[in-house]
Amino acid sequence: MGRRAAQVRQVIRIQNIYHMLAYAFQVLREQGYRDVATEEFDNTAELCAAILARGISSQLKRGLGREYVDKTEALSSLRGKIEVTESVKTRSVLRRQMVCSYDEISVDTTMNRILKATCVLLLRSDIDKARKKELKRMLVFFSDVDDINLATVDWHMRFNRNNQTYRMLMNVCWLVAKGLLQTQTDGSSRLMDFLDEQHMSRLYEKFILEYYRHEHPELNASASYISWALDDGFDDMLPAMKSDITLSHRGDILIIDAKYYEHSGNTQQQFDKHTVHSNNLYQIFTYVKNKEAELEGQPHEVSGLLLYARTDEEVQPDAAYHMSGNRISVKTLDLDLPFDEIRMQLDTIAHTHFAKEVAYV
């Protein structure tokens, strides 16, 4: 059993990762990125390098983002706040200078440092020479930007009207830094063919949610919280229940739990029989029954779906069960098909559940 599970792997076309990213980050659907969809890539890092090059090029046309940064230095003419203690300590007075601290508008921002560091990281890898040449051309414009250690970056960033164009770029940098490159003991970088399971899982969930938001506006698509059905309202220490994707139309609700497993497969084997992962089934059943309790007294129909990313294991889950008055389905989404066929799979799920309200796109 253990040997068999180790052989099972996720199968996904590199080109489909672009489409997943394009839905997750709608900016990739704009004119400047469309030619990426027609290119062929050997691995995901090549894809991210292409996206990053186009994104930085677009940002350079707008101008690199600038912020006020704190500076402290010895100056001959006074500026900002005089640091008396530091001036005495460094004996700058003897040189007819004073240590001053002041704010200065600069391109040396955290986000620009991250862009620069990510380009350098990709340059140390073995991606295509043409890609490296493209990234090197970009680095010329970062001469006034300091280095940063990507391992220490706080990726929880705030975006506003002034830096909104950096949102997708920061997410691609995060994917490269966290999921694509691994540093070897000799200091070199090794490319991974795909994002690791944790990062692919997050992208998989985000892609499905944004697909339904964009392609099926007739449905309300959200990652909503579900309240526990409590008798006394006491919920101390209970974990939050947040669905990956909830599709709703009036009282008709489908809760989708997106599951991405890179190696372990989508089923477990016991006594030569394949079964759905028990914890996954318990989880979606819990979501459905608690959501139904929320809607008590209103016309409603709540169903659940475990949507696995297809692996290359022999048996793929595909079934529908009726449990305590609710429909719980288990299906797989094949990410190794042409994207039009992936689209059809997702449309079929919506059409099957919501029937009259949803048309194929």
UniProtKB/TrEMBL annotation:
<protein>
    <submittedName>
        <fullName>5-methylcytosine-specific restriction endonuclease system specificity protein McrC</fullName>
        <ecNumber>3.1.21.-</ecNumber>
    </submittedName>
</protein>
<keyword id="KW-0378">Hydrolase</keyword>
<dbReference type="GO" id="GO:0016787">
    <property type="term" value="F:hydrolase activity"/>
</dbReference>
<dbReference type="InterPro" id="IPR019292">
    <property type="entry name" value="McrC"/>
</dbReference>
<dbReference type="GO" id="GO:0009307">
    <property type="term" value="P:DNA restriction-modification system"/>
</dbReference>
<dbReference type="InterPro" id="IPR014407">
    <property type="entry name" value="McrC_bac"/>
</dbReference>
<dbReference type="Pfam" id="PF10117">
    <property type="entry name" value="McrBC"/>
</dbReference>
<keyword id="KW-0540">Nuclease</keyword>
<dbReference type="GO" id="GO:0004519">
    <property type="term" value="F:endonuclease activity"/>
</dbReference>
<keyword id="KW-0255">Endonuclease</keyword>
